[in-house]
Design brief:
By secondary structure, the protein is α/β, with parallel strands linked by helices. The chain folds into two domains: about 60 residues, Alpha-Beta Plaits; about 220 residues, Vaccinia Virus protein VP39 (Rossmann fold, 3-Layer(aba) Sandwich). Helix content is about 30%, strand content about 25%. The N terminus is likely disordered.
Length: about 300
């Protein structure tokens, strides 16, 4: 938390919308606008700008207005990269983005799996409208958008074991996003908030585990540092659902992404050993927000 709060402002980053443009086109636009950037090898299609570049500098670009780039933090772009490439070979691939707004990760899924059947749930009306606006602007078509709490999924999809891939970028206390220029969440932060989100996160997971096919993959992520909402949720799932197996997130550190493995203990809590071996935390820095990322495979029936 101290590292995160000490940052005055994180460097601006965006990613290429591969459905509408090319690296050559957007890099030429950056050059013409005199915007200095670094093209990252990972996440794919990610561009990080020098500290003097503001978001508003990109908003003025024609490529932004045309939906050829999407403003998205580095850490936020990482989770989707860890779905298995082999899943893309599945005919009639079905994917769920459980807490989808504003739609950045759903867009990544559409770009990576252009023929997949994708569902995007969002409970907040304002965020849902922003998400659908983004999809239209970015040219993301054939996405089943649902304005409802994903815990009510049974109202919309009756068939269990329906999805090959489920992304739960869960609502959380947001500690990983805080900086000196973004302290709004601190106004409502409390231990009670963490407990509230922990309950919400468990409820979302409980609702969706029955919809994941055997052999299917679930990615669970948050932008908080709170262990209760991260390791605590994964520990809960592994204890409750013996058919779930935790997979390794092999995320190497570099100049722009600092990481460490999941926690084994926090205060009086002790988590399953495999959590500390396989989950990953992205450490808040001047380049990236704090994030927690985990991957689970459903290896059998209950």
């Amino acid at each position: 938390m101290k590292t995160s709060i000490s940052q005055e402002r994180r460097s601006v980053s965006c990613r290429l919308n591969a459905l509408k443009s090319t690296e050559t086109e957007i890099e030429e636009a950056f050059f013409k606008a005199s915007l200095s950037y670094t093209k990252l090898e990972f996440p794919a299609g990610c561009y990080l700008f020098d500290e003097n570049v503001q978001e508003s500098d990109l908003w003025r670009l024609k490529i932004y207005k045309a939906g050829k780039i999407y403003m998205q933090g580095i850490s936020s772009q990482i989770p989707v990269q860890y779905f298995s490439n082999e899943k893309g070979k599945i005919k009639s691939l079905k994917i769920l983005d459980a807490c989808a707004a504003p739609g950045g990760k759903t867009g990544q899924l559409r770009e990576q799996y252009p023929d997949a059947e994708i569902w995007a749930f969002e409970s907040s009306k304002i965020r849902y409208e922003k998400m659908t606006h983004n999809f239209e602007k970015l040219g993301y078509e054939n996405i089943n958008t649902i304005h409802d709490d994903v815990k009510n999924i049974a109202k919309h999809i009756e068939e269990l074991n329906y999805f090959d891939m489920i992304l739960i970028d869960a609502p959380c206390s947001g500690e990983g996003a805080v900086s000196l220029s973004n302290t709004k969440f601190l106004e409502n932060w409390s231990l009670g908030q963490i407990k509230k989100y922990y309950s919400i996160q468990k409820g979302i997971c409980d609702a969706l585990i029955p919809y994941l096919r055997v052999g299917g993959e679930l990615l669970y992520s948050t932008c908080t540092m709170a262990p209760e909402e991260n390791e605590g949720v994964i520990h809960y799932l592994l204890c409750k659902y013996p058919e779930l197996q935790l997979e390794n997130i092999d995320l190497e550190q570099n100049k722009y992404i600092k990481t460490k493995k999941g926690l084994r203990q926090f205060e009086k809590l002790t988590f399953k050993k495999e959590i500390s071996e396989n989950c990953v935390r992205v450490i808040p820095s001047e380049y990236s927000e704090g994030f927690f990322i985990s991957k689970i495979t459903k290896v059998g029936t209950e």
